[in-house]
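Researcher: Checking consistency across runs. Here is VOC family protein again:
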Amino acid sequence: MTRTRFSHVNIVARDWERLAWFYEEALGCLRLPPERDYEGRDLERGTGIPGASLRGVHLRLPGYEDGKGPTLEIFQYDPRGEDPPRSVNRIGYGHICFQVSNVIEAREHVLNHGGSPVGEVVTLSPSATAAVTWCYVADPEGNIIELQRWSPFGFRRA
């Protein structure tokens, strides 16, 4: 069997530059040059979209500053596809999750940078020795993000 390693998650954006800025400023992602600007027959063949072109960038996810971790790929396509409504319980890819040191502070930071609330901050105790504090928020284009912090009992849960 071929060896496998996780590489990236892609978000198709209405405005890739604005969305990349949001993930850099609100969640600490780092831009990885070069910017991508693709078009032509090979892109059309690979995507199955006649006349396809795309622009965008890869962002290093926080916690992987050594340059060896996965990335968040943000692309803007032309022609633009459909934009179905998003919800945390829809079938298919649901959300991207970031572990944070303080969920309440991270939520406020995301909201102050153009994100929007999806639900409330809650704490669940899935085991007798730990609890997870988490919430869902959305980026400026409506993609759902989970912010979470795992804590052993006896520690502050936010």
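Researcher: Does this match what you'd expect to see?
Model: One thing to look at in this run: The first strand starts at residue 8 and ends at 12.
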